[in-house]
Amino acid sequence: MMTLPPLEAAPTDTVLFVDDEAHILAALKRLLRNEPYQIITATSAKEGLEILTHTPAQLIVSDQRMPEMAGNAFLQQVKLLYPDTIRVILSGYADVNVILEALNKGEVYRFFTKPWQEEDLKASLRKCLVHYHSQHKGQQNASHTQHARRAS
Amino acid sequence: MSEDTMLLFQRELDREKIARAHAEQLLEEKSRALYLANQLLNRITQMAAEADEFDAALQRAVELICYTACWPAGHVYVLDESTQKLSPSEIWHLRDSERSTLFKNAIQHSTLDSESLPGRVFTQGELLWSKNLLNDPHFAHKAEAGLIGLIGAIALPVKIESRVIAVMVFYTESEMSPNSALVETMASVSEQLSRVLERRDYQVSLKAANEALELKVQERTIELRKVNQQLAAELSERHKLEGQLVQSEKMASLGQLAAGVAHEINNPIGFVMSNLCTLSEYLQFFKQLLGYYDTLDALQDDAAQAAILRAKIEKFKAEEDIGFILEDLDAILGESKEGVERIKEIVQNLKSFSRVDETEQREANINECLETTLKIVWNELKYKCQIEKHYQTLPLLTCHAGQLNQVFMNLLVNAAQAMPEQGVIRISTRADATFIYIEIQDNGRGISPETLPQIFDPFFTTKPVGSGTGLGLSIVYGIIQKHQGDIDVKSELGQGTTFLIKLPLVQSAEKTAHSPYTLQEASQ
User: Fold this and answer.
1) Which pLDDT belongs to residue B448?
2) I need a labelling partner for B382 at 20 to 30 A (CA). Which of A92, B43, B157, B400 fits?
3) Residue B431 gets which letter from DSSP?
4) Nearest chain B Cα to A20, which residue?
5) CA–CA dist A93, A97 (Å, integer)
């Protein structure tokens, strides 16, 4: 079993889960109820995009096979609208080519499979948030450096 | 009557008698000659027909004529096919061969003078004679002939298809002055011999042609047999390849199925497993809580300690959110149970879809078959289309339900794939006294008129190389054929495609026994 990374993630972090299967969302909510982040859920890509307009999330976890809009297409949109977010797919099956393309284009950060290992999933999600914060800091630092360079 | 008159009368009578006797003799001679000629002709006909070789036939004819006519020598000149010239042959009849050697050699080793007797017969093509060779300026062997007393000669042509191919020359020991009977007889002999030889020649060439033909037939037969074997080998190789391709198509459609099925099974497994994990956390909490209460029981006497413990328990309950846990317990069990039910159903659907254990035809309800197939392909379809069902009550159909399910799956998945975005698939069934009709209609992009006639061809595909085997619809066609049904397609670009399947309620036994293309593998 993986040891959980330290609770570096701010307790104000929010993770959005999108899955057309309500029972999956319920199971995830239960499993992750004591994790150091807020959990919000949506049962479609459309609903997910709507929620993101008023509730910012650092990490978005989406199913791949959903009616109307598939996970990769949804996350592609999320990347355009919220490029800082960490985007992950959690799916029971997906076309390898689709996933590879999404990964290589940077639209998706990780691909997790269903069924999941509870502790692994917890650890992986925390790592994603850690990655978010380190990237965020890095970006801030980078922009600071740029400002500094311009200033000098 | 006077004596004179009597005498005159007597003389007249005697003269008449003599004339009569003469006439009778003449008649007898003539009839004898005729008889001989007739016999000669008959025998020539017979022997010429009997002789195996052309030369042997001529040899026998020369002998026969010499014997019959009492001529001392006969010889044949034959046509050399390559030079088209007449030359002396080895065919001879000599009454006294020892004495005749000189004459024979002289003739044998000479070239033919075209003006000589045989030369003229050859060019003129008719019977000729030389009264006295010793006066003939074109006869070169006077000395040799004179030595054995040969004086006259008669020569007759032998023809095949009006072409002189040999000239027979007969020599006589007196001057040759043939009467009309002899000329006639010899002309007949010549003609008859020609006819016989002609027939023989015809038969020989016919036989040769027959033999050549037979040889050719044999050769061709061997050739054909070879080609046949080759074809059979190629055919069996092709069948093997087709079998493999049918198998690979089956695998491809299974793979397509697997995507949907894997997703559909992994979802419930995902939440059921996760729920079990959560449930064990809940259990941990309850066990710990129970432990606290046991301790509390033991502390009945110690009110102060008990109060501390109670506070701890309350804090523990609040921390672990007992309200949420209690509320969630029913949900977690209910949802998990539902998940397991769903997995069970998927497996059952798969089983009834494939009907693995059925090799023979059984009664099935086509509406149920469609429902089973829909459940399986629904995972594939639900993201792209709505299904409209128009089922009418159908009589049971004796069929390979597993195979028909494969047909429906193929058509439904094709329909879904034909949709650029969202679409509608309309499934209708109906029946009359003899047929069941199944119509699967989509409003996808349609099939172009050029492509339409080819869609049932094996290996025809519009998908990029590697994406489809091109066998899907040919297998569909094969299965419908096997059920003695018909499949028809109507399509319009941009409007959609309709497949109409017609299945007979009663199949004729004969056809079932000789189904042209076994697809049992494909459906198992």
Assistant:
1) 86
2) B400
3) E
4) B267
5) 12
Question: Tokens 């003129």, residue?
Answer: B124
The owner of tokens 């990374």 is A5
With CA atoms as reference, the chain A residue closest to B423 would be A68
Give me the residue label for tokens 């199913």.
A63
Cα(B134)–Cα(B131) distance, integer angstroms: 9
The backbone torsions φ and ψ at residue B122, rounded to the nearest 5 degrees and listed phi first, read -60, -45
What would the pLDDT profile of A41-93 be if each residue is shown by its tens digit?
Answer: 999 999 999 999 999 999 999 999 888 888 999 999 999 999 999 999 998 87
Per-residue pLDDT of chain B (524 residues; tens, 9 = 90+): 677 888 888 888 888 888 888 888 877 777 777 777 777 777 777 776 676 677 887 888 888 888 888 889 999 998 887 888 888 988 899 988 888 888 898 888 888 888 888 999 998 988 888 888 888 888 888 888 888 889 999 998 988 888 888 899 999 888 888 777 778 878 887 887 787 777 777 777 788 888 888 888 898 889 889 999 999 888 888 877 776 666 666 666 666 666 667 777 888 999 999 999 999 999 999 999 999 999 998 888 888 888 999 999 999 999 888 998 999 999 999 999 999 998 888 887 777 666 555 567 888 899 999 998 888 888 778 878 889 999 999 999 999 888 888 889 888 888 888 888 788 999 999 999 999 999 999 998 888 888 887 787 766 666 655 555 566 787 788 888 888 999 999 988 888 899 999 999 988 765 444 444 444 433 33
Distance from CA of B384 to the nearest CA of A (A): 7
Q: Count other Cβ atoms within 10 Å, centred on residue B28.
A: 10
Residues on chain A touching B422 (C-beta within 8 angstroms): 68
CA torsion sign, B478 to B481 to B483 to B485?
positive
The answer to whether the peptide bond before residue A115 is cis (omega within 30 degrees of 0) is yes
CB atoms A26 and B273 under 8 Å? no
Q: Which residue has the tokens 């399986």?
A: B376
CB atoms within 10 A of CB B51: 18
Q: What angle do CA B204, B206, B207 make, to 5 degrees?
A: 65
Spatial distance between the Cα atoms of A128 and B52, rounded to a whole number of angstroms: 110
**Helices within B321-457 (DSSP H only):** 322-354, 366-381, 401-417
Provide the edge-to-edge strand list for the sheet that holds B152-160: B85-94, B73-80, B163-172, B152-160, B128-130
Interacting residues of B500 by C-beta distance below 8 A, sequence separation 6+: B437, B438, B439, B487, B488, B489, B490
Q: Is ipTM beyond 0.90?
A: no
- Record: contact A93-B262, CB cut-off 8 A: yes
Backbone angles phi, psi at A6, to 5 degrees: -60, 155
Whether the CB of A106 is below 8 Å from some CB of chain B: the reply is: no
A43: left (phi over 0), alpha (psi -120 to 50) or beta: alpha
Q: How far apart are CA B286 and CA B111, in angstroms?
A: 139
CB atoms within 10 A of CB A132: 18
Q: Identify the residue whose tokens are 């701010």.
A: A10
DSSP state of A35: S
User: DSSP secondary structure string, B51-118?
Assistant: -SSHHHHHHHHHHHHHHHHT-SEEEEEEEETTTTEEEEEEEEEETTHHHHHHHHHHHHTSPPPTTSHH
Taken in order B367, B368, B373, B378, the sign of the CA dihedral is: positive
Which residues of chain B are within 8 Å of residue A118 when distances are taken between CB atoms?
273-274, 277-278
A contacts of B275 (beta carbons < 8 Å): 27, 30
